[in-house]
Structure formats: structure tokens, C-alpha cells
């Protein structure tokens, strides 16, 4: 089927060639007349936009690539809008990573206090995008990639009536890595993950006519070298005891001391590495002979995000009725979480709506952690929307990676001081 317009907010991101590749590879199911890339950085937009145009021209795709600095123009008449913004840029990310570390806490861009700071900066911006979208194209779908993806999606849901789903490349990556490990085609595996964005566990891995979860755990346990690859960074006894497969971000909880040590010893934060990678990618993109997504982009963590996004859009447009793992309003799917909380779980995708599939109760071994992180997320959303210092403090106090009031207050004050230009809601 054909759709007339996809708007990409943050279209100057070095990730955009991924999306274009997704549009190219799904072209037999989904024809997109126009793709508008919007960005506040004209230089990035020009470089990335020119590469996107060369990519579609190379394969003869009729999709028109338009560039815009206007939010209103980008949202007007869009069927789908993808948000992939980083408020405060890479410099903001580096502060999110370094400030907690200075207080002896995990410095990570989505998990822990770093993700909290990113959320405070991002919520007002994404809220504005959602408000404008509901005025310009009230029937459009907003697909949010902006991190922390689940938390931001919930903030949009609370403050706007638009149709929004949050997406992450985590679930699709888990499927591909597990398939590779087991020597099976990824399309033949169904993995049910339950929980929140960057805080979820696979409790079913269905394939070959059975639940392969314990075989997968057994296989991982037999390959201790996998611990260092970053994708299954968990001790075999942990996996054997849980009988769940945690997403990689759970290493910040299960391996907290080791991770903290590693982050403290690193000469650069991940944000500093990404800044360098991004600089090199943009130089590469500026080469007018380049007509495809360069291999170097695979060094970024968001690999396969375009596959997740474009397959989702294609499923909605073509009313495929298949299952995607999405960040959506719980509506009773996980009995241990509030009805209005956004959770990351498998959903049935239809043209008119996405329907979360029932999970029931979370296993006792993980229930408390999920509930605590969801409380932190909800307090963070309220703090950001209300500009409330006291709720911001409560949010950090509720976070399992923040051990005391003293540290919560010092880290909060440091964020508010260092990022005040982006945190004006706190006065
Ligand atoms: C993972 C996460 C994404 C995150 C990315 C960071 O893939 O699922 O949410 O944005 O890693 O990758 P980076 O290359 O920016 O460190």
C-alpha cells in the first residue's frame, strides 16, 4: 500500500540512512511518496539529506526526500512521524554519563540518573511535537525512538490524545542474537519479552514447535566467552536460577559493581566515543560517491532500528495483524503495574490500533524491580511536566540505582546546574 508522508524529527541524525535502507527494503509492501527529514541543525540536515536522496535514486525508488527546518511543515499531512531527537545533543549525553560517575553512580544515558536527566530535558520538547501533531495531523501515528523510549512514550500519552507507540531496537536485536546463537533463522523465532523498555526479560522463546528458553539458557551457559560480547553479559548461574533471559541493560542492575568499575576506569564515556564516531560518519556521508548506508554505522548501538520501524509502519498500513514488541499503555496486560503505565511487551498490530497482549503477573524475582523503576519513571514524567523539584528528587530516590537521599540531591542539583538551558521548567 502507498502512504503519502513520513516525517522524521531529528532527520539529520547519522542513523537516518538506516531508516532509508528500511524504506528501500520494504518497498514491495510499503510505498512512501514523501519522506520529510526535519532537523534544527542545517549542516547535518544537508549532508544526511543528500545521502538519503542518493540512496533512493540509486535504487530508482520514487520516494521524494524533502528537507525542512520547520516542525509545522513536517507534521502537516503526515501519516507517520518518527521522533529520534537528542535534546542537548551529544554534549548533553556526555554530561548525563559523567555527572553520576562523579558521585560514584552508574553514568549511562538511559538507565539510572543519566536517563533521568535526559528524560527531564526531552519531555517538554516531545510534548510540544505531540501537541503540534494533534493540531496538524490528528490521525497520524507517532513512533517514538527518542530515549528513554518507554518513559518518553508515557509522557506523550499523558499529555496528548495522539496515537503513539514507543519503539526500541532491543527486542529485534535479541531475536537476531538468539537466532544466531541457536543456528536458526530469526523469522522462525518468537520471543516474548516482558517488562519495560531497557528493563525486560524473555520468558518464552518459541520455535521448532516448543519453548526453547531453557535450551537457549543452557547454550549461553556453555559459552562463557559470550559474557564479554556485551549481548548476554550474565553469569550462567544467574540465568539458570532466573530461567529468564534478561535484556543487556539489566547488567547495570545484576552486575552493578563490575559495570560501575568499568565505567570509572574507561578513558572515554560511550557518549565521547559516539561523538567521534558521529564526526567520522558525517565526513563519510558528505562524500558524493557514497550511495548506501556505510558499514561503519553498525558500530552504533541502534542497529536494526529501521527494520523495527518500517516493519511496524508496514504492518499498520497493510493491516497485517502480526506481533511486534512495542511500548504501549499497559491496560491490564501486566497485572502488577498501573493500567496507565507504558510497558514494553508484544502487541497485536492492526490498522486501527495496537493491542497489548496479556502477560499476567510478572515473576516474583523481577516484579519488585520493574515496579520500582516504573515508579521512578512516573515521578520523572510528573517532575518534567510540572517543573517540580520535589518530584524530581522523589524520582531519583525511587530509583534502585540511587542509594541515598544525599546522593540523589547532589546529583539532581548538579544536573540542574549543568543543564539549566534545557531545564527551564525548573525555573
Ligand atoms: C541500544 C539501545 C538504544 C540506544 C543505543 C545506544 O541499541 O537499544 O536505545 O540508543 O543502544 O547506542 P550508541 O551507539 O548511541 O551508544
CATH superfamily of the domain at 2-166: NAD(P)-binding Rossmann-like Domain
End-to-end CA span: 48 Å
Based on DSSP secondary structure assignment, what is the total number of beta strands?
13
Broad structural category: alpha/beta
Low-confidence stretches: none
Major sheet: size, sense and barrel closure? 6 strands, parallel
* Radius of gyration of CA atoms, rounded to a whole number: 21 Å
Features:
427 residues, alpha/beta, Rossmann fold, four-stranded antiparallel β-sheet, 16 helices, 13 strands, binds 6-O-phosphono-alpha-D-glucopyranose
Task: Please explain how this structure is put together.
- The chain has 427 residues and is α/β, with parallel strands linked by helices.
- Among the domains are: 2-166, Rossmann fold; 376-426, no CATH class.
- 47% of the residues lie in helices and 17% in strands.
- The chain has 16 helices and 13 strands.
- The strands form three sheets. Strands 3-2-1-4-5-6 form a six-stranded parallel β-sheet, sandwiched between helices.
- Helix 5 crosses helix 6.
- The longest helix is centred in the first third of the chain and has 24 residues, at 113-136.
- It is globular.
- The chain binds 6-O-phosphono-alpha-D-glucopyranose.
Amino acid at each position: 500500500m502507498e502512504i503519502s508522508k513520513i516525517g522524521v524529527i531529528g532527520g539529520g541524525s547519522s542513523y537516518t540512512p538506516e531508516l532509508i535502507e528500511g524504506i528501500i527494503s520494504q518497498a514491495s509492501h510499503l510505498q512512501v511518496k514523501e519522506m520529510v527529514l526535519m532537523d534544527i541543525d542545517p549542516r547535518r540536515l544537508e549532508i544526511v539529506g543528500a545521502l538519503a536522496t542518493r540512496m533512493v535514486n540509486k535504487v530508482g525508488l520514487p520516494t521524494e526526500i524533502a528537507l525542512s527546518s520547520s516542525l509545522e511543515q513536517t507534521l502537516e499531512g503526515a501519516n507517520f512521524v518518527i521522533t529520534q531527537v537528542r535534546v542537548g545533543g551529544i554534549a548533553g549525553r556526555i554530561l548525563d554519563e559523567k555527572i553520576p560517575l562523579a558521585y560514584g553512580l552508574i553514568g549511562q544515558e538511559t538507565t539510572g540518573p543519566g536517563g533521568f536527566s535526559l528524560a527531564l530535558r526531552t519531555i517538554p520538547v516531545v510534548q510540544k511535537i505531540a501537541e503540534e501533531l494533534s493540531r496538524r495531523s490528528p490521525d497520524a501515528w507517532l513512533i517514538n525512538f527518542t530515549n528513554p523510549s518507554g518513559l518518553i512514550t508515557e509522557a506523550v500519552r499523558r499529555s496528548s490524545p495522539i496515537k503513539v507507540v514507543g519503539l526500541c531496537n532491543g527486542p529485534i536485536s535479541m531475536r537476531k542474537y538468539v537466532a544466531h546463537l541457536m543456528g536458526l533463522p530469526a523469522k522462525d523465532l518468537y520471543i516474548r519479552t516482558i517488562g519495560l523498555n531497557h528493563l525486560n526479560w524473555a520468558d518464552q522463546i518459541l520455535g521448532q514447535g516448543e519453548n526453547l528458553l531453557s535450551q537457549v539458557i543452557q547454550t549461553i551457559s556453555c559459552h562463557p566467552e559470550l559474557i564479554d560480547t556485551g549481548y548476554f553479559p550474565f553469569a550462567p548461574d544467574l540465568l539458570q536460577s532466573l530461567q529468564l533471559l534478561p535484556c543487556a541493560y539489566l547488567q547495570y542492575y545484576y552486575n552493578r559493581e563490575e559495570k560501575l568499575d568499568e565505567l570509572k576506569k574507561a578513558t572515554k564515556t560511550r557518549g565521547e566515543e559516539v561523538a567521534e564516531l558521529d564526526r567520522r560518519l558525517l565526513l563519510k556521508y558528505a562524500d558524493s560517491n557514497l550511495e548506501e548506508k556505510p558499514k561503519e554505522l553498525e558500530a552504533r548501538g541502534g542497529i536494526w532500528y529501521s527494520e523495527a520501524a518500517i516493519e511496524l509502519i508496514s504492518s499498520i498500513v497493510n493491516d497485517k495483524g502480526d506481533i511486534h514488541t512495542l511500548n504501549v499503555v499497559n491496560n491490564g496486560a501486566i497485572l502488577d503495574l498501573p493500567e496507565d503505565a507504558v510497558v514494553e511487551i508484544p502487541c497485536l498490530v492492526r490498522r486501527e490500533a495496537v493491542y497489548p497482549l496479556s502477560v499476567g503477573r510478572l515473576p516474583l524475582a523481577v516484579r519488585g524491580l520493574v515496579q520500582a523503576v516504573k515508579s521512578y519513571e512516573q515521578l520523572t514524567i510528573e517532575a518534567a511536566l510540572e517543573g517540580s523539584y520535589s518530584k524530581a528528587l522523589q524520582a531519583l530516590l525511587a530509583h534502585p540505582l540511587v542509594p541515598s537521599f544525599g546522593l540523589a540531591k547532589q546529583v539532581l542539583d548538579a544536573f540542574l546546574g549543568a543543564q539549566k538551558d534545557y531545564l527551564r521548567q525548573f525555573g
